Amino acid sequence: MKHFDIHPVDTTLQDRIQQKIDNLNKPRGSLGRLEQLAMQICLIQQTLTPSLAHPCHLLFGGDHGIEREGVSVSPREVTWQQMVNFTRGGGGVNMFCRQHGFTLRIIDVGVDHDFHGLPGIIDRKIARGTRNFLHEPAMSPEEFDRAIQTGSDMTDECIAERLRVGELCSGMGCRVLSIGEMGIANTSPSSIWMSLLCDIPLSDCIGAGAGLDSPGIRHKADVLTRALRKYQGDGSFVSTSADKRTVPLLLRYFGGFEMVAAVGAMLRAAERHLIILIDGFIMTACALAAIRLCPAAQDYMIFTHCGDESGHRLMLQAIGARPLLHLGLRLGEGTGALCAFPIVDSAVRMVCEMNNFDNARITKYF
Q1: pTM for the whole thing?
Q2: Has 333 been annotated as catalytic?
Q3: pLDDT tens digits for 161-206?
Q4: Which helix or strand (DSSP H or E) is residue 237 part of?
Q5: Catalytic-role residue among 69, 143, 181, 333
């Protein structure tokens, strides 16, 4: 697996940042979570005047062999149909990217469909879907490495981008990255990742996904339980939460190409000191995987919302993450991260644009 050189954020500027925040013309601490976000962002960028220049959204698509076991209410073809819909601007992700000024990149890393060079889809296909992890590993070591590298490369492409809407963005590429996914049945590998990486019983990690009813959830639980028992019984399983050397094995055994690519994108973004907006259940599972591989990566992550998928709240708690929103979202695609962007923007505007007591000639009363 590709090596990422990720360090915790440098806290040398912390006192100066806090002093600036405390001297803005407001009661100390009165902007609550915005002040905490501003501190995190200033530390990530190592500046008292942070920027959210050229926000980018990566959407990775891939299909899953486990879908053949009937673990999702949605059929497999919805993956490619939605990918095509995204190229036409008709998805939820398109709407929110337009609203908040994000550049959207749609990347096929493993969709079971030939797009025939369709404009708007970046072709990085590794295979036409993963294998069925009920019977065998979802991907080979070589495929896993390619997915990690693809995610890393997509992050680099965002950073290298200098133009947006034909205008130079102060010489800066992407400073904030959000990531989404499209892959029918990907709540199944996410649930297993969560269970193994957090030492949480699998039954607490399984939910309705795109809308399974109670019998459907029971069937999904039965399939995933059998898959997990097979994995644990072949001699490859050890305490994954305690030994990060085993993490790549379980990620490739159960993961999807779009999920592993997202992990690679997150790790590279942390290595390059980007702000990373983490979406819902599936992207939180990917963030969890990235953190287990490189714990310092969490310093660069903002967890944007808690969705309604069973287990999401437990996973956030296991990470020690505080989500910004709880709106009952479960669409995926990275839409929750995009919805939360205005809050992040407000935190940056606060620290960059608010006046201080001296300049405003207001008595500092504390």
Answers
A1: 0.93
A2: yes
A3: 754 444 444 456 789 999 999 999 999 999 999 999 999 999 999 9
A4: none
A5: 333
